[in-house]
């Protein structure tokens, strides 16, 4: 007979050790997802993701989504949950433009989605979203990067990484974070790719087939780079090319 944990049947049941297993399962789904890195300078934000191939016959999963002209997200975890949250974020931007004539501040957008995620930890009939978000963009206050957990916790960073083997990426980012503020867009993209490389397995090679890159800065909207552009920046890291 399969063992069943009596404390993980709903998100409101605490174990004797003070743990909420449903939330821990959601956090574990994020840890098992492909690595995601976000960086910002004074004028530019960069998101890069390591996309996993589910089957030989399939394409890699999409992990970067454009939310608004200057806002995007990168996700790690359950892709289906990410799609639902993406629609919610886009709806918030559309509502703000209709009512106020402008996009919402990025901090307000991050707070809205974190409240939604946290709300799903308070209902026994629902499960937490099994996805972590890096929300990045530009608004009147400049560039911003926010990390939203499945538990609803919200953090603001200068750079961040999540997903499988992301601790190696965080170590790289911590080493160079003080230089990011003055970086141009090309240098910032190179740093993001280098950080992502730290999370790859020994038998993996980063290329446009398994790596997505998105950039936004003051004079350019949030854009996911095409394969040729992505390969160009990846090849810049190879001194022989």
Compact description:
With 241 residues, the chain is an alpha+beta fold.
Could you characterize what this model shows?
Helix content is 36%, strand content 25%. It has 241 residues and is an alpha+beta fold. The protein is globular. It has one domain: Aminohydrolase, N-terminal nucleophile (Ntn) domain (Glutamine Phosphoribosylpyrophosphate, subunit 1, domain 1, 4-Layer Sandwich), CATH 3.60.20.10. The protein has helices spanning 21-32, 79-100, 106-119, 166-180, 185-198, 227-236, and strands at 36-40, 44-50, 64-68, 71-77, 131-139, 142-148, 154-157, 159-162, 211-217, 220-224. A hairpin with a 2-residue loop joins strand 9 (211-217) and strand 10.
Helix/strand class: alpha+beta
The ordered H/E elements are HEEEEHHEEEEHHEEH
> CATH fold name, please?
Glutamine Phosphoribosylpyrophosphate, subunit 1, domain 1
> How much helical structure, as a percent, in the residues?
25-40%
**Briefly, what CATH class?**
Alpha Beta
Examine the secondary-structure arrangement and name the CATH architecture.
4-Layer Sandwich
- Unreliable spans: none
Strand order of the largest sheet: 8-1-2-9-10
Number of strand segments: 10
Molecular shape: globular
Quick check: average pLDDT? 88
Radius of gyration (CA) equals 18 Å
Largest sheet: 5 strands, antiparallel
Continuous helix count: 6
* Overall number of structural domains: 1
What is the CATH homologous superfamily assignment?
Answer: Aminohydrolase, N-terminal nucleophile (Ntn) domain
Strand content: 15-25%
């Amino acid at each position: 007979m399969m063992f069943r944990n009596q404390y993980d049947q709903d998100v409101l049941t605490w174990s004797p050790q003070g743990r909420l297993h449903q939330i821990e399962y959601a956090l574990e789904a994020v840890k098992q997802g492909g690595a995601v890195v976000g960086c910002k300078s004074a004028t530019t934000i960069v998101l890069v993701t390591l996309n996993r191939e589910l089957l030989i016959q399939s394409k890699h999963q999409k992990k970067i989504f454009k939310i608004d002209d200057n806002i995007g997200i990168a996700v790690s975890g359950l892709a289906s949950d990410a799609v639902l949250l993406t629609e919610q974020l886009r709806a918030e931007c559309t509502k703000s433009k209709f009512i106020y004539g402008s996009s919402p501040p990025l901090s307000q957008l991050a707070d809205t989605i974190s409240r939604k995620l946290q709300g799903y930890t308070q209902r026994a009939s629902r499960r937490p979203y099994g996805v972590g978000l890096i929300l990045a963009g530009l608004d009147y206050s400049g560039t911003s990067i926010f990390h939203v957990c499945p538990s609803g916790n919200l953090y603001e960073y200068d750079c961040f990484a999540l997903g499988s083997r992301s601790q190696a990426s965080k170590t790289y980012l911590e080493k160079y974070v003080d230089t990011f503020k003055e970086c141009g867009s090309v240098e910032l993209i190179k740093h993001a790719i280098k950080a992502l490389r730290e999370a790859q397995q020994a038998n993996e090679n980063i290329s446009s087939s398994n790596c997505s890159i998105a950039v936004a800065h003051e004079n350019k909207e949030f854009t996911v780079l095409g394969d040729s552009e992505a390969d160009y920046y990846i090849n810049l890291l190879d001194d022989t090319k």
